[in-house]
Amino acid sequence: MNKYRKFKKMDNKSYSEVTRFLKETTHLTAREWVTARLCADFKNLSNQSEMTWIGEKLPELVPFMDEAYSRQEVSNARASFKKKVQRSGTTFFYAYYAGLITQEEMITFIHRIVIDIKKLMDTEGTEVPEEHATEVQLLIADVLRRINESLDEDY
Question: Please, which domain of life does this record's source organism belong to (predicted)?
């Protein structure tokens, strides 16, 4: 089996180097990034992640992973990924809604976030379809609207 193509640009990197790269723009470790990516890409006919298979094939799929993981280790890493995503979102939105950053700062952060996202997507060799980018923008607008409504209800 060939190495999984999405990690091809990391062929000559160590696990520690990949984690350092990720820490420049995210809160993720290489373990969390890898398992989230593989769980998203390798699903069965029931649309469930093939965690046992992913764990067993990890060293074959990913150049900087040296050992296989158990199903539980894959599940734990994926859960850790999701928890960090939620915490990052809470931090991001809280800072703005609590008045800790200005609207101008928020816009500047968003521009930097887009640059970082492009860097990560390029690393994976992935392109975001235009319709997906539009869908994400609409989703974020909806999330902001819902946060506003929820905050209004609480006061």
Answer: Archaea
